[in-house]
Amino acid sequence: MTRSVQALAYSRASALETSGAGGQLLGLETAGGLTPRGAEAHPRFFTGFLTSPSIAARGLLAVADVASARYYRQTPASSLDPVVTGNGDRLRFESFSGCCGVYARLDVLREGLDGGGTDHGTTNVDINHPLREALSRITADDPLHLRVGPEEMAVTTMDGPLVEKKVPLPDRWLRGFAEAQVVSAGFDLRAELPADEAVRFLRSLPRTSGNASRGARWVVPAGRTLRPTTRPVAGAVCLPGPERLAALQRVLRHATALRVYGPVADGTASASAWEVVLPGMRLTLTLSPEASRGFSGEGGVLEALATDDAASDAELVSVLLAWEPRIEPADLAEQAGLTVERVRAALTRLGTAGRVGYDLADAAYFHRELPYDARRAERHNPRLVAARELAGAGAVVIDGATALVSSGERRYQVRDGQGNLSCTCQWWADYRGRRGPCKHALAVRMVRRGAAVTGGAR
Question: Start and end of every SWIM-type domain (predicted)?
């Protein structure tokens, strides 16, 4: 696994302190990030009050739980501090598990904030161990002032010593962020449980892995609740590795509903999303199709990365983004002079650079800029790199709806059936397109579309 070291520099450590008025102040410190004004060392996104302090504290802890967890082959691992985005009317806190199989996001909505709107931008936020202990002790909803970003004095006086964290940043995490958004965009709402049934159902799930939780499980809506089923019947939702929902236990007693999202069941294990609705907030966990299978290998972004059209379209669309909490593809298509389909492909490509996410509750993309070089995820994607090398080396020979691809000492046949490519390689035999196209099909797609592919990875 390719890794780099991500250095996060904060003006000081985040802390929960007693304010002069007798209340408490939660100061969340920010590292370098992007805003409408450009790159900033320590952007400031919000100052005001949380309307439900204890619930927000538990939601933040849940996001931090996922950031420090490995749900498969559990080993000690460093935690990348969560990402925070200010979208004008809300704050979004995101994290990804070390095993690349769970994506978490806490959306603190307008109703959850008291103090005007939020500024715009994205950066990392310091969630350290002393802060986690302090947050876990918040039990009452006494007034809690929240500051996301440095104090006003610190904005102009940054000469003091910085608090620096250095954490390993695997390329799989970067690809995982992108794939989770692509997968989520294909989900629909499958079930909504009221508070009492949501609590009952989630508390019935195992909190640790074991033989009982291995493999795919399914649940199906039954009245006001969900019941388990041994096979993916009509309307069923896959629940892969139910112990990976353990972080939701943090907020269960405050839940007002549970929403479950997923694709149409096709008989195979699939990803799903589990959203706990809270007063003024939403906490969502998105699970990969299997506990042993991270989002980074799903391949849902590869088609959008394989063409130069998507690259140029993404560059155009990116100029039109303005940190919106909801991105409307139809509006962007009109502004950019593109079709909605090309805008969606461009948004997928922007997702691989960490520049857009997907909100299931709103059924819409949102603008954010992940605070690290996510372009490495494209350059180091093994299937994409191999496909570019094959296409650039002239290994693809097209004859109508069929193409021959020479790879090593073997030749593979790729067929085009109404826009869906199949291949005679082992990857296709194993997955039948469920984990994105193989490198041979990608290379054929590149050549058919006339992409500039010489020189391998870009």
Answer: 412-449
Nearest of 110, 113, 109, 77 to residue 95 by alpha carbon: 77
| pLDDT value of residue 73 | 66
Give the dihedral sign, CA 52/287/126/152. Answer: negative
C-alpha distances (whole Å) from 204 to each of 45, 197, 220, 245, 259 are 38, 11, 15, 11, 17
Q: Point out the domain boundary residue: 117, 150, 167.
A: 167
Expressed in angstroms, the distance from the first to the final Cα of the chain is 19
The low-confidence residues of the chain, meaning pLDDT below 50, are 76, 153-159, 211-213, 451-458
CB 354 within 8 A of CB 370: yes
351-362 tens-digit pLDDT? 777 789 999 999
The answer to whether position 19 is within a domain reads yes
DSSP state of 164: E
Per-chain mean pLDDT for the chain: 84
Phi, psi of 223, deg, nearest 5: 65, -120
Q: Is residue 387 part of a domain?
A: yes
Q: Residue 29: give the domain boundaries.
A: 3-93+107-167
Mutual angle of helices 329-336 and 308-320, in 10-degree steps: 100
Number of separate domains in the chain: 2
Inside any domain, residue 111? yes
**Residue 78 neighbours by CB under 8 Å, 6+ apart:** 98, 167, 168
Amino acid at 153: M
Note the pTM of the prediction, 2 decimals.
0.83
Q: Is residue 415 part of a domain?
A: yes
Which H or E element spans position 121? strand 120-125
Structure confidence at residue 380 (pLDDT): 57
Q: Which pLDDT score is estimated for 40?
A: 92
